[in-house]
Write a structure and sequence with these properties.
The structure is a homodimer of 159-residue chains.
Chain A lengths: L10 H19 L5 H11 L7 H10 L6 H13 L3 E4 L4 E4 L9 E6 L5 E5 L1 H13 L3 E12 L1 H7 L1
Parallel strand pairs in A: 3-5
Antiparallel strand pairs in A: 1-2, 3-4
Helix pairs in contact in A: 1-2, 2-4, 3-4
Chain A binds a DNA duplex (30 and 30 nucleotides) through helix 4.
Amino acid sequence: MTANGFETHDHTQCISNTLQVAEETCREKGLQLTPVRRRVLEILAQKHTAMGAYEVLDFLREEGLGSQPPVAYRALDFLVSNGFVHRIERLNAFIACVHPGEHHAPSFLICRECSTVAELPGKPVSDVVAKAGTELGFTVEKVSIEAEGVCPDCQEKTA
Amino acid sequence: MTANGFETHDHTQCISNTLQVAEETCREKGLQLTPVRRRVLEILAQKHTAMGAYEVLDFLREEGLGSQPPVAYRALDFLVSNGFVHRIERLNAFIACVHPGEHHAPSFLICRECSTVAELPGKPVSDVVAKAGTELGFTVEKVSIEAEGVCPDCQEKTA
DNA sequence: AGGGCGAATGTTATGATATAACAGTCATAG
DNA sequence: CTATGACTGTTATATCATAACATTCGCCCT
């Protein structure tokens, strides 16, 4: 289990690790980590909270990297397709993957107070779902598991 | 395990059961199953596929039961809050619950070909997530588990 | 060199989903 | 009989997402 948004960690290190893995992976697979794509990943990696596409776009716009929605969506699509970023369905938002490079079926813990998202290995959970599907003759291709609740920090603040 | 969208079943029976349970539950709990709310549930119960709010609204409009988005969203909110309908996050759409009355944390199998949605008891799966959350100090309140894939019928058609 | 191709980006326009805010209706508890 | 609360009606607008077509640029082919 590597870092998640609830543990304190060296976040500078966390960011550079994410970027580095993305660069290596792209090199290996012949994918183009273009300036826009790289920058979007960097923006998302700043925080362990999910960010909407238009929020990302605001950054790009300020930096002259693009001003129209498709620019952001295309970069996000690329990053999601290649496993560098996850889409949080409940939030219609995106978050940088904290286990980049690992082949995984993540599950997410989403704090409804501070919007911090922690990523858990979801393999055991998704296996159960895949098995249940198979019994019904259903072929499971993707599983998304998203839990909403309150994170440790926000529980303290409330108490 | 009661009926799901992949098994053949007496769907007329399925619809009337859904409505009946909703009526009883509302009576017991002092909730108002108003005409709009009842009709929305009935509309969703027609099929085991998820329907968008605007699609539901089209029916209501034709029938003079409402013409503006809030009418549909309010009825859907009521039905979701009380467990008669589930929201499928991946699809931004809604589906009638097939286990009404049962206290459950469902998971869904969504066919990407025909959009049929099957509801599985998700309790064992969500328990795993809740446990993992607890270990991190996170209090899990809601878990949504949604799998995308291909249903038995569509697999046959493709083959 | 010139031409064609594919991948990425730029841009316009529009579609799809969702909610805030306030006004009107109606039953009923005081 | 009026005050309250739950529901509904309506307008306006916010938010999220993509279709479609134009442009750029590197690269391969001959």
